[in-house]
Design brief:
Strand content: 25-35%
Number of domains: 2
Number of strands: 15
CATH superfamily of the largest domain: Medium-chain alcohol dehydrogenases, catalytic domain
Mean pLDDT: 94
Oligomer: single chain
CATH architecture of the largest domain: Alpha-Beta Complex
Distance between the termini: 24 Å
Length: about 325
Amino acid sequence: MIYKNIVVPKRGTTEVLEIRDNEMRQPLGGEVGIKLLAAGVCQDDVAARVGNRPFLPKLPFIPGYTILGDVDAVGEGVTSVKKGERVAALTVLGGYTEYIYLPEEKLIPVPSNLDPAEAVTLILNYLTAYQALHRCAKVKAGDKVLVIGASGGVGTAFLELGKLAELKMYGIASLSKHGVLKDLGAYPIDYRTQDFVEVLSKKEPEGLDFVFNGMSGEYLKRGFSVLRRGGTLVHYGAPESFSQFLLLMAEFLFFMVLPNGKKIKGYGTHRVKDRLLREDWAKLFTLLEEGKIKPIIAAKFPLLEAAKANDLLESGQVIGNVVLVAPELL
């Protein structure tokens, strides 16, 4: 049997994306074959294709940071999952596919009653927001926070989880997206027409407890300036080049030694122990089951229409998440 996936043979626009055929095979020992139901679409997928990251995958490659699907076959020695069970994985690469083979230790059990399109957003976007809030910042009720880049998949996750945590929130986004920010409990600031430093100096003259920055490093200095003494800026956005990576590291060192009582921290999923990742995924699945979170799905595309999904994400018009799904789920 044949399955298809999306391949990046060279750097460039979505026009470089190719659909290729692959022969199905039996999973190897310790490996699991998974029929995909959903795959997340994120900025790292775009960056890997375009080439604006300091460390890039070798060409050709299959993009796709997160997947969710049903176990179709298991290799010899696999004991943690069975055929028919629903699983997800933080793949980093390989997710734009109809079928994938993964080691069993990479798999996360997923409740089968959850909407696959919603559940797959928890694997990266909601995990990032949850861990930045609760593992890195350790927020508490009443804390005052700013979310820079508040309207995308991670940004809306921050606001939804921040509302649950009873935070006082401010969010930066374009004017057309302010209604959603208000619905999620944040005071919106338009980055095109307003200086957020000026706005916050009036709204919160004593400063904020935390700033969460998923945008470029240019926000570091200004974000740092709106913190109170003892406040912390958490940066989770990836730089676009090796030179920017070095500049970001230099800025981190600079802000860390400033004698003003403020802190700066970096967050990445690769920095967190596997046990804690699994604990937090389980918590997020429970929140989704209980209806305490409801991921915003801006658009769903068939698995093989990744080019259209990437074009939409790159347009800057997205509020929430873009997801690829199996055709039967549309």
